[in-house]
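[09:14] KT: can someone run the structure on this one? pasting the chain below
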Amino acid sequence: MRRPSLVRGLLLLMGACLGFLPADASADSYGDAIARASRLLPRQPHKVVIVERADSSSPTPHTEAYAYRGGRVVFLIRQGATLQSALKNRPVFDCALAAIIWHEMAHLDGADEPAAQLVEEELWEEFIVW
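[09:31] RB: done, C-alpha cells below
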C-alpha cells in the first residue's frame, strides 16, 4: 500500500485553509516561480516544463508533476495547486514546489516512489528547520 507523502498531505491541509484561486499568470510568472523554487534545491534541475492537464477526468486529477525515469525533464502541471499558489508569491509554496521538483528529480535519477517520497520529505524537513 502506498504511503501518502508528508508534503502532499501538508499541502492539502494548507490548500483547505488558504483556498486556491485560478491564477492568470504570464510565462514570466511561471519562470519566476520555478526559479524561486529551484534556488532552494541542493542541485538544479536540468529542465522544468509546464504542461496542461490533459483531461479533468484523468485517473490522477491531483497529480502536480511527473517525470520519466532516466529522462532529464520535470513536467509541472499548470493547473497544480502548488504551482498556482507559488505564482502568487506565497513563500511556503516556493518550498513546496521545490519539494515536488526534488521528488521528480529523484525519479529522473532512477528512484522508485518510496525513495522519491523519502528525498522529498528530507528536503521538506530541511525547510522546516531552516
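[09:33] KT: thanks! The beta strands are 47-51, 65-67, 73-77.
[09:34] RB: yep, looked fine to me
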